[in-house]
Amino acid sequence: MKTIETEKYVLRTNCKINLYLDVMEKMDDGFHEIITLFNTVFLHDDMEVFFHGGQEDEFEYSYDEDIPYKPKLRWDETNTLFKVWQVFKKRFDLNSGIKIRLAKHIPPQSGLGGSSSDAAALIKLLSDKFALEECEMLEIASSVGSDVPFLLKEGSAIGTEKGDKLQYLDPIPNYDVLLVQPKFTFSTPQMYAQLDLMKFDNWETFEGIEEVTDFEEELLTETIKDEVLNDWEDDEIDAWDPYDDIMRLHENLSSGTPALTFNDFEKAALEIHREYEEFNRQFYSIRSDYIHLKSMTGSGSAHFMIFREGTPEEVFEETEEIFRNMNCWIRRTKLYEEKGEPK
């Protein structure tokens, strides 16, 4: 058996948003195939990790007071950190205990990938200690959670299959981001089950896309000249390719031009969560020339707004005030950590 030297490590890993998310059919393994555009966001949990020679593990956690949903976290298979530790203990026949102190700043059941980011941070630490190759690290990450492979490193990437097959793209500009979450949350299994009940080909896809845009009518009309949206408008759905749509979105975000997106889970939320209808209405009623893109992330219930470079401070203040009046959890941040910002 091996042991790990006694030492304390301080870890943090940024969470993610889904700039685009299309859920497709179930695969043979029971998981849904998806295609998504991930991007990291500079919001993270703080975690202290201690290794010791004893056999008993210890796990402590706390939440920010304003987080809407604070579930009890157990040290078992429901905990991604436990799952990571068990993989490494078995793989390397470890005779060490671990103590983790976790300060949660990323809300659970938000679609921001908080538990996945925690797992990714621990995988990176342990992979470094045991000199694992990147392919081995990715294999472990995929076994723990579908978002975990992406969260092993920052950036922008297309995720396919379960979201764990990644194609990294050039980073988009470091825009300001406003993250908001209502006081209610969604169950991911329930959201997938609702999507299975819905007939995708009967969705009013074009109307859904128009609803999540953030442009004045004349600008929207100009954007709709895009050939993919013309296909949707003409009901030529077979001509639509989500990969092309993602690349167009990435290009538009990179160049600062108008962008369109959607998230399939918004349709499911509107079907099964009555309280979401009013939040959705108010969220998309907020319009500004400075808002570049907005949508739900993951299966919710958190949403994001990406602001154009040079947005005046009063625009952020006015927008945040709207969400405060809706009793939302709010965080203003960036897509990436700015150079020179203290660790």
Would you give an account of this structure?
There is one protein chain. This protein is an alpha+beta fold and 343 residues long. The protein is built from twelve helices and ten strands. Strands 1, 2, 3, 4, 5 and 6 form a six-stranded mixed β-sheet that branches. It has a four-stranded antiparallel β-sheet with strand order 8-9-7-10, with helices on one face. Helix 1 runs parallel beside helix 2 (114-129), helix 2 (114-129) packs antiparallel against helix 3 and helix 10 (264-272) crosses helix 11 (274-285). It is globular and about 60 Å long. It starts with 6 loop residues before the first strand and ends in a 9-residue tail after the last strand.
Highlighted features:
343 residues, alpha+beta, 6-stranded mixed beta sheet, 4-stranded antiparallel beta sheet, 36% helix, 26% strand
* Distance between the ends: 35 Å
Please tell me the overall pLDDT: 87
Give the helix proportion (percent range): 25-40%
Supply the helix-strand structural class: alpha+beta
Summarize the structure.
The protein has 343 residues and is an alpha+beta fold. Helix content is 36%, strand content 26%.
Task: Lay out the secondary structure.
Layout (H helix, E strand, L loop, with lengths): L6 E20 L5 E21 L5 E6 L16 H13 L4 E8 L9 H16 L4 H11 L3 H4 L4 E5 L4 E5 L6 E6 L6 H10 L7 H7 L5 H7 L3 H7 L8 H14 L8 H9 L1 H12 L5 E6 L6 E5 L5 H13 L3 E6 L9
Helix pairs in contact: 1-2, 2-3, 5-10, 10-11
